[in-house]
Amino acid sequence: MNSPPPGLEFDLNGERLIACRDGSLWWPAARLLVVTDLHLEKGSWYGSRTAQALPPYDTRATLASLRRAIEATRPAIVVCLGDSFHDADAEARIAAEDAATIVDLTGRVEDWLWIVGNHDPRPPRQWGGSVSHELALGRVVFRHEALRAPLLDVAGEISGHYHPVAALTVRGRGLRRRCFATDGKRLILPSYGAYTGGLNARDPAIASLFAPGYDVLALGSASIHRLPSAILRPDARAASI
User: N or C: which terminus of the chain carries fewer CB neighbours within 10 A?
Assistant: First the structure.
């Protein structure tokens, strides 16, 4: 049996989960690995639309990180929670080597599920895996964007979309760290893509989804820190996601 990946264990609606340092989520009992917002080919999309080109290696870096997560956990199921591809034309721009990596990764597991997102309402099917709007399993449900519904109606919801980041002041120095956000009933994952930005976890768009006193699980270089959201520093204005 594999040892648990490095991360922080916590409960969500009665299920024991592990928030991993790379931003993935591991559910040991279901042998299920979750990532969100890969935004593959964001670099090539950005470079084709602006005068300031980004190095076009974000897809390769993101897939390399995902490969390491799969090798560490050896999941039976991988769930990608939407916005896996940055736009509808990403499949036309992706390098053959990176496409082959996707085929290799989807072939390593029993089930691979692409949840549809607002950036990729029709994820490509030619590289393996199946497509769905959401997945209900055990006491949790997976979807791209959290529902704007009474908290009692969304117990066990796991989603992405918002790219939460924790803004902190430590010894007079401002820090921003990708983070999970949870109140024990629902969970929002950090973005997994190499070129994705973030939205402050104190922003009303995120805060309004949780019961008062929700926590963040902030990704540090060596560990994950569970912090009350109340101690985080809000931004003067929201970041783009």
Answer: N
